[in-house]
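hiii so my PI (J.) wants the whole complex modelled not just the main chain, which honestly fair. so below is everything: three entries, each one labled with what it is. i double checked the lines twice but i was tired so who knows lol
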Amino acid sequence: MQIESPNILLIVVAAVVMVLYVFTNSAVLVWVERKVSAHIQRRPGPFEVGPFGLLQTAIDGLKLMAKQLIIPGKADKRLFMLAPVLSFVPPIAALLTVPFGKVVQVQNLDIGILFILSLAALNVLAILIAGWASANKYSLFGAVRSVAQNIAYEIPLLLSLLTAVLWMGTLNLGELVDAQGGFWFVFTPFGFVAFLIYFVTGMAETNRAPFDLPEAESELTAGFHTEYSGMGFGLFFLGEYTNMILVSAIATSLFLGGYNLPFVTLNGEGVLWELIRVLIFLAKAYFLIFVMIWMRWTFPRVRFDQLLNLCWKVLIPFSLVNLAAAAIWIKAVGG
Amino acid sequence: MIQKPDPTQETLVLNMGPQHPSTHGVLRVVLHCDGEYVLDAEPVIGYGHRMHELIGEVRDHRGFYANVGRMDYGGALSFGHGHILAVERMLPDLEVPERAEYLRVITTELNRVASHLLWFGAFLLDLGAFTPILYSFDDREAILDLLEHVTGARLTFSYMRVGGVCADVDKDWCDGVLAFVKRMRDRIPMYHKLVSGNIIFRKRVEDVGLITRDMALKYGCTGPVIRGSGIPYDVRRSEPYSIYPELDFDIPTSERCDCMGRYDVRWAEIEQSLRIIEQAIAKLPEGPVMAEKVPKVIKAKGEVYQAVEAARGSLGYYIACDGSTSPYRMKIRVPSYSNLSILKELTRGILLSDLVAVMGSFDLVIPEIDR
Amino acid sequence: MLNYFKEIFVGIKSLLIGMKVTAFYGTKRTITAHYPFEKIPVTLNFRGHIDLVVTKKGYHKCITCGMCERACPSGCITLDSVKPEGAKKKKLTGYTLDFTKCSLCGNCVETCPTNAIKYSNDYYLVGTSRHDFHFDLLDRAMKAAEEMGIEWTEPVEKPKEPKEPQAEGGESPSPAGA
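here's the output for the full assembly
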């Protein structure tokens, strides 16, 4: 493969577009979450501002921006300011390598998966810094929980992704999607198990209920972002929703055939075909997000040690066995 | 006494409350933590102290009607019931009509169901599930509508009167109650599907907060807390009052002794309350709801202790009167106070998350503790 | 080992059952009332703050005995009355309710010998200052009479006429029941 020099201009433009996308995505997702949760709980949710309350999140965003940023007196000011940014920027950078379509992909890295995972790991750092810098005991508890949780969850997450990588034989996200074609990886038994494990660990990765231990507002008031107000809190919020789209985008590319329909490979040329592909990709990703939201509003929160038990006693053995079985299958049958 | 933190020990002092999402009001718990493990939990009460007992000593007996509901916002009617029964026992000439007693029991049991539904929602909220509270409030609203129709209020009812109750019911209301009983019976399986069977929920509550029989007896726990430890103590059966001896109902207990046991007991109690309501409606006699000769000014003499079974356990009114219009001394034994006292021993060495689950399973009402 | 797999299976099944329940209710219609646009009908038995009963003749029934004032545990009721020169009965000149102190026990209504006070149905009571809840019930009763189309008429005491010839209260529905 020939080494291309990256087109700086393209990347800058794409990054701006991606930031805009992330903002609108979060606004829409917050609205969706509020609507879904409301209807599950048999209430209408936001419906005052704009049609169906669509502008509610925009107004909320404005409110957050207008609010005063309060920094606690004993907090480490620099770290305190750094943490929200750190939770918000890496997922955006990671999204730059996600293949939304055949062409709609900012940078197709050969080590795409590794790049995304290394950036996703920064999220823990952000929470740790936030919890430490707040000089609040509840925040510190949240931060400590977050670290333990992520150390445990990164392993099955990586193992399940490794199964996909092993199966398709590449780390390049674009090639991973192409390698599946219409026959999604999730249709194979190994893929199915790996997908389930990935989905559970992905939920833990985004710190969402039932794995929202760093927040755990009935135990730790608000966990790591107890002391954050205004846009500091807003950035954590944005980061959470961006992480959600990132996790489901990876699941879509690796397990659900990316922009391909089941058993149909879409190889058409032209803008229209590309648009269809992007829409299919987004539909899959947003469906996964919908399931995440649905689960969040159904289940209680797991306990800290149970989460680790689940990880070490169930998810890691299963993903290891799954990986080994997939490897044997490839060796025996020739994948 | 609150223990001073010892600087030589590597423990963390965490002030949980008085403003904390899962202390259900202004309860403060001082925790000494080793990491996530709670070494010592010391409840500090009194932030919501409103001197209800003293008010009861200054006002006349009727003047206390409104206060009883303010002590326990969840089950205001049983608090009223206890007070009225205590005062009536000091007036031997007073004959309370039977219909009034039936109405007292029906409304109190409806209120008990409402209180348990409120607890259910709040408990699940403590465990991090948001949706069950909205479902249980749906049913609770139906009860409150019914109660509002007869008592005229939705939370602090002041329905009980010396000599009877303040409002009568009609046939439509009884039909409404029966319709509610049916609706609630249909809804119970849904709650069990959504919550009771849920693996995450079961893991959170099973074998957490084990109260042995001895412990429960030693600390004077009552209500679902002691019945969750396998002791069938219920004031409605052990010291029968009102028309409860005429009704057929069971005292549900659980041998589990943990949070799950208390959870099971409360759900079984809801079913028993529905049974009681059904029987009482069927037996509801005709007649007046207020005694004929109620003295205009109540001048009681003597002392009484009247216990009733409130939603959270045994509730006792001790009233001593010296013949004047207001009591000489009033002491109220509230169930949550004794139930809370076990917290210190129970939570030694458990996780912070479990502490929240244990406190949720007690169904604490802080205004009742502080009075 | 078997237990291990069984627990995983049962656990996943219980989670799916829970999701089914929320999905079921998620598709059903909402049950909340959109408050400012929709109002839930108030039950007739609702106990709001007290009001003076307006009789068909366009007056109140209060005889200023002061029972309610004494019965009120919080001391919210203040009665003002004068005894005009030569008259037999006292005349009510002011009935003030401090609703900020009231806890709606209902003792005043029950103790009233002439049933002169009743519960109002003011469910959606709001105010911007505490003075908004110091009600002058006499004034309210006059306004209520005006709304009902009854003229506020003070009964003439001395000449003991049985009834006013006009039966004006007959048509307009008045809550002044028995």
